[in-house]
Amino acid sequence: MLFNSLTFVVFFAIVVALHNAPLPWRVKKINLLIASLIFYGAWSPPFVLLLLLSTVVDWFAARWIAGAKTQSRRRLFLLISLAGNLGMLSYFKYGGFLLENFTALMNAAGVAYKAPEWNIILPVGISFYTFQTLAYTLDVYLKRAAPTKSLLDFALFVTFFPQLVAGPIVRPSQLVPQFAEPKQASRDQFYWGLALIAIGLFEKVVLADSFLAPAADAAFGADKALHPLDAWTGVLAFSGQIFFDFSGYSTTAIGAALCLGFALPNNFLYPYAAIGFSDFWRRWHISLSTWLRDYLYIPLGGNQKGRLRTYFNLMVTMLLGGLWHGASWTFVVWGGLHGLYLAAERFLRETVPEQEWFKSLWFKAAMAVLTYFLINITWVFFRAQDFGEASTMLASMFGLAVKPERVLYYNEIIPALVVVAGMVISHWRMRATSLEAAVAATPRWLIASVLAAMLFMLVITQGSDSAFIYFQF
Amino acid sequence: MAQRNSLTFFDPEHVERPIPGRPWRAILFGALGATALLTAGWEAFWRSKGLIPGDYKNSDALWAEQRRKAVGEATAIVGSSRILFDVDLDIWEELSGVRPVQLALEGTSPRAFLKDLADDPSFNGFVIVGVTTVLFFTQEGGLRESALKFHREETLSQRADHLLSMPLEQFFAFIDDQSRPRRQVQIWPFPLREGMLPRFDPRKLEIMTADRNTEMWARVVNDPAYQAEAKAQWEIGFRIFAPPPGPNGEPPAPMPPEAVGAVIAGVKIDIDKIRARGGEVAFMRLPYGGGFAPVEDNGFPRAQFWDRLLRETNSVGVAWQDHAELQGYELPEWSHLSPREAERYTRALVPIFYERLEAEGRKTGKPASRPAE
């Protein structure tokens, strides 16, 4: 079920009504679990079984890990969890990719191998919920947390519908304790939750789908060398589209959970105002970057094993982070570029002595612009279907393409650039504050007017038919 | 003021959401009231522009709903926009006792849809194929081919969305692709960039009922400026989609006879499948004029295309060019009949169509006794 659908409006109204009905807490939790399974099953009922399988495997694996007498048995049970989750992920998400590369390798070696057809449908959100359940067994294994006593609470942690399919990737310690005691939103929590849902849907339906997607789709779908204005407009539009699409999902998820009395963490913090790449990853898809930090980068040794090893760890973490997004080498290159950026930034911080003018506004602004510029280079690999498309787009952006063509009309260029400019300026203005703090300092009439404008735009846009981009990951 | 400082960074151990300290009840009710007023204004504006409630979106979901009805001995129409606009289902039902399932889609060749019915073992009915030669012979699907994929992969939530949307579309006129901000920006008359051709972007032409009975939108008939805009779009299309001239500027080469034969052979396979299950297929050409006449008549000469199609598939076909009763109708934008003319045309067409079938001893898909007789 999509947040940006009439079905979700009806579904959510029923869930809220049941959640506020005079029922025992356990019954309310069962209601939420059933609602979450309906939410997920509305796409494809059979994949609910996969979700439940992941839940059950990790529930038992964590209990066995906690109860194991020896380290080898603890390791064995962790392996069961890893094999279950990563095996499922590998089969559904990376099976075709592995087969394709194996075939290419065989053919390159002179072995005439023809791979069988691989028509496996990717279950929605599998990358998100497998990482969420993996965090649970890893936390228990690393003795950061004790296993949950209630299977119901754990199942709800895995399936909780607001963040099930595209995050934020919540840690057990953040959400499971919230299910222990009865939760009901206060009046202000409920209203603010509704406002967040409106903001999130506005980001997705109006900004991403209506004003940015046309330029990004036309430029990346042109399949030809482009005039630099077209290429840059397409890439900038995509930078806005991917942000508003994903941030819109996260904000709606946070709002929906808040309406029920639950708190989910922020996933975005004005990322296009980042000064440098470590700052960017503290602001972009925060729940993934911290997951990778805590369960991959630090276990690899983090920055504790020397300079070279730190760079290596950064690269491995970001390459795998890229692969997490999709089974394609273009995603690996996207992650690799971010790894390179992070390593280069770390190198510069370690070797260039701190100067007073580093703290000046103009220097920070220049670094923010440079960061945004370099991030846009990475988005080319993220959005392109293959390296041919990516190299054509990069050549077009820098005026190196042969026979460039104009493909975008002003009808696409003007709205896209206006929205992107507004996005970058607002990120810069908000970089040191938060939405909540800004709203708290805004006159009530202005808040009401902005909300009305967003709701009106949502109504007249009549929803959008497209799924959130991150669903495919 | 916010009750707490917001989260700056992700805290894996703890999460709490601050609530901005504002009078939220008043703010939300104020916003909802303003939204309701703005929406009422928007609705009034679009009604003044000719949009009407009960004009359903020509969506893939609406198509899929009709496709589910094309089972058993149903009569189904596949084709492009001409058979969609020009056949009035109410009149057809009144005269024949049969209400066809309308599956035609604008800008789309019916071949992929004929194949879909041919491959569906639950269908053994009658298929009326509307032939717009330029679309029929040059592509298998086209603009709205996605409807088939949608039908095959439609999720429970998509079906629920459609069911919830229908009552709203019956009540609000503004629920229409034409009124979406994205659409309004797309058709805004910005100047053209150097070296670019105008975009081929047909305007809203039709209104549609819940079972896809379709007629031309009144504005196309009554507003000369809008009508001229619709024609201008066709002219852009003629320029963009015209086959390229030869290397020395000679007229474009016609479609090779072997390629035409291959298309017809594919269609025949599908027709044979339907006939093998007891069904029947017949073809139909519907009126066109203005700029479409040279495109169709010169680019797709009747003998090499239409006549060959009927001959090699052993099918009955009714072409408007062959019957005086089917000629001389008003085509406001050259390609489709006005509602009044579509009604008149259907009244003339139905007897001719069924008489041709009966004369050749074909199945007609009609019930044993016709209510109108």
Compile the SSE list and pairings.
The complex is a heterodimer of chains A (473) and B (373).
Chain A (H helix, E strand, L loop, with lengths): L5 H14 L5 H17 L4 H22 L3 H38 L17 H16 L9 H9 L12 H9 L6 H34 L7 H32 L17 H5 L4 H12 L9 H19 L3 H23 L9 H23 L3 H11 L12 H21 L4 H6 L3 H18 L12
Helix pairs in contact in A: 1-2, 2-6, 3-4, 3-5, 3-6, 4-5, 6-7, 8-9, 8-16, 8-18, 9-14, 9-15, 9-16, 11-12, 12-13, 13-14, 14-15
Chain B lengths: L23 H25 L11 H8 L7 E4 L2 H6 L2 H8 L4 E2 L8 H8 L7 E5 L2 H6 L7 H8 L2 H16 L9 H7 L18 E3 L5 E3 L1 H5 L1 H18 L15 H20 L3 E6 L6 H8 L3 H11 L2 E4 L19 H21 L14
Parallel strand pairs in B: 1-2, 1-3, 3-6, 6-7
Antiparallel strand pairs in B: 4-5
Short description:
The complex is a heterodimer of chains A (473) and B (373). Chain A is mostly helical.
Distance between the termini of chain B: 78 Å
Biggest sheet: strand arrangement of chain B: 2-1-3-6-7
- Give helix and strand order of chain A, one letter per element, not per position: HHHHHHHHHHHHHHHHHH
Q: Profile the largest sheet of chain A.
A: none
The most extensive interface between chains reads: A-B, 73 and 60 residues
Please tell me how large the radius of gyration of chain B is: 25 Å
Taking the sheet with the most strands of chain B, its summary is:
5 strands, parallel
Helix/strand order of chain B = HHEHHEHEHHHHEEHHHEHHEH
> How large is the share of residues in beta strands of chain B?
5-15%
Overall 3D form of chain A: globular
Radius of gyration of chain A (Å)? 23 Å
Number of helices of chain B: 15
Query: With helices defined by DSSP (H or I, 4 residues minimum), what is the helix count of chain A?
Result: 18
List keywords for this structure.
heterodimer, A: 473 residues, mainly alpha, B: 373 residues, alpha/beta, two-stranded antiparallel sheet, disordered N terminus
Structure characterization notes:
The complex is a heterodimer of chains A (473) and B (373). Chain A has helices at 6-19, 25-41, 46-67, 71-108, 126-141, 151-159, 172-180, 187-220, 228-259, 277-281, 286-297, 307-325, 329-351, 361-383, 387-397, 410-430, 435-440, 444-461. Chain A has 473 residues and is an all-alpha fold. Helix content of chain A is 70%, strand content 0%. Chain B contains 15 helices and seven strands. A five-stranded parallel beta sheet of chain B has the order 2-1-3-6-7, sandwiched between helices. In chain B, β4 (206-208) and β5 (214-216) form a beta hairpin. Residues 1-9 of chain B have low confidence and may be disordered. At the A-B interface, α1, α7, α8, α11 and α16 of A face α1, α8 and α9 of B.
